[in-house]
Amino acid sequence: MYFALTDLIQTDGGSEFKSEFRLNVFKYAEKHRYSRPYRKNEQSYIESFNRSLRKECLGWGKYKQRDISDLNQELTDYLIWYHDKRPHMGLNMQTPNKFIQQLPDF
Q1: pLDDT tens digits for the chain (106 residues)?
Q2: Residue 80 belongs to what H/E stretch?
Q3: What does pTM read for this prediction?
């Protein structure tokens, strides 16, 4: 596991979040929640992250089975950068991990 257990993973109802994902989600989160369709802000954070991931890391191409090993390393590097080094405007130009450390419960 690359990152610590989280309280919640929220996904949409996409086909990639069925079967195998559903069997493994609780290895990474205590709760799994499906976002409700057609709710204005319900999926905005997920869509924003997906857009950043595509724009800053993966691009919009299709990948083949032989690319998985390289993609795993690229994604790991990106997630570390995203959480530890990339400032976020919505967090007053702090990184997510820095922001979380400043919360009263931490």
Answers
A1: 456 788 888 888 788 888 888 888 998 899 998 888 777 777 787 788 889 999 999 988 888 989 988 999 999 999 999 999 999 988 899 998 999 888 887 5
A2: helix 68-84
A3: 0.66
